[in-house]
Each structure stands twice: as structure tokens, then as C-alpha cells.
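Pilot study result, target chain (325 residues):
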Amino acid sequence: MEFKDYYRVLGVGKQATAKEIKQAYRKLARTHHPDVNQGNKAAEARFKEINEAYEVLGDPAKRQKYDELGANWRQYEQQAAHGGGDPFAGFRAAGQGGRAGGFRTMDPEEMRRIFGDEDPFSDFFRTFFGGREPVFGRRGRSPRHQRARAGRDAEHEIELSLDEALAGATRRLVLERGGSTHTVDVRIPAGVADGGLVRVAGEGEPGESGGTPGDLYLRVRSRPDPSFQRRGRDLHMRLRIPLLTAVLGGEAEVQALGGQRLRLRIPETTQNGQVFRLKGHGLPEVGRPGDRGDLYATIEVELPRTLTPEQRRQWEALAKAGDRG
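Predicted structure:
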């Protein structure tokens, strides 16, 4: 077992104030939090170390005992190993006092949600501060001594059409719990992002020993649409216009998502592939229905498939005029 230099872990000196220690902890915890370092085992280990360090240095009583322990920690360890009483009683007492001074690391349930039943505290911490028993469970312990544990969150994927993303939708879910089924109507807000999550509180896995159930998260996937392509809150479409409209200019009708019909002015000599923006006709922001993205129309010029004799004479005359020019 190695000595844990908690001051070094948090990057502060031994004379650091409680405020400086708290600031250092918050900065490091944000940087190494598993939510922003998914799958990164090094960041996970560092986060555990940071949380443990603040568990000690953030509590005035624990910090005082830790400072008294200092370089003599090996003597205390050996004394206990050879039956010399319990030299750690004072340290353990400091570890059981709860939240002296108002500090807060991640509570046991938060740590369990992230790391499962794996103990996030080092042997050094367990030896000198007694840990937070009972939190993560031990094999062979009587169930009556187990703490209530919240259930794990669950995730399910749902598919949403663009019309539903525009106006919002309701999904009826049939869920199973404890061998029985029940239905839940879930409101999907307008504008929910492709890949976004909708939380259904209390519909995840059941808790243990009276713990609260976890939550269910619905991950939204946009259903492919024949007319529009979604890019964030913006929509993209292709708009076919006659050749004469492209050459001479005019108007074209655009049917926006939801069925609204818009008039788009086409300037003369509009090129094939030119893009026009129709502001405010995309998808809304969640909770802000009036704040919508844009609709982008890419022009596709339609060429005639057949020509009447008169049309041919006119095109030939136009070609000759072009040659003379």
C-alpha cells in the first residue's frame, strides 16, 4: 500500500485554503468526469483519485487527521498489523462524521451509477479513514445491512418523422416491470434533435432494497423523408423549375414541411444547382417554437423532353442569334 499525497493529486500546497482546495477539485472533476471522457480508463482512474482526495481535504476534521498522519503513516500501519490496538481510531472517527464544513464530493449513489459495484476508494483511504461503509456492498453481507440502491437507467431508440419533429408527438410505450406490464404515454417535444434524448423519469430498472428506480431515456432517430433532408434545425430540399423560368425569371411554389405553400421569386438566368434560403421554415428549437431553422431549396432546371415544330424554330432562331452575337 502506498501513501496517497492528496495535496499533489489536487495540485495545491499544504497551506492551501479551503476555498482553493474546492476550486482545484471542481476544475479537475470537470476535466476528468466520465461523462466527457467516455471509455477513457485513465480519466476514470484520475477522477476516482480526485474524488478521494477531496473527500479528505475538503473535510476539516479529516484534513487535520491526514496532516497529523504525515510521513508516519507506515508506523501506524505496522502497529495495527502487530496487534498494537487500533491506532487508526481517530482517523476512522474523522471519516464517519458526514459533511463537516459543508463540503461535497460525489455521493455514493452518484459514484455507483458511474462505476457500478466497483469500489472507487484506494486501500490507503480504506485503511486510515474507514471508507464509507456500507456503500458498494461486500460479498457475504446480510441483506438486512444493505443500503437502498437506485436502479440503473435504461435507453430505448424511437423513430420520429420530420412532421412529428416539427409539431411534437406522443408515444405510448408498453413497459414490463416485476413480471407485469404497464403503459406510459410520453410526450416528445417539438424540435427534438436527431440523436437527442427524452427522459422518462422512474421508468428505468428497479432499485434494490427499496431504492428508487432509474430513468428511461428515449434516443430519437429521424426517419428518412422523401422531400426533405435534416441538418440540425435546417431543412434541405430540391426544387424543380422550368427552363424558361430559370432563363427569364418568375416565381416558383415551394411546399414547406407541414404543408405550408410558399412563393419563391426566381431571378432571371438562375443557374442549375443554385441554392435559395427561406428563413424560418426549418425545425424549431426545443421549448422555443418560434425560433426555427431555415429551409434551403436547391434549384433543378427542367429541360424539355419533346419539342413542337414551332418550338424548334424558335430555339434555332435563338441559336442563330447567339452565333451572330
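One observation from the pilot: The chain is about 35% helix and 25% strand. A full batch analysis is planned for the follow-on phase.
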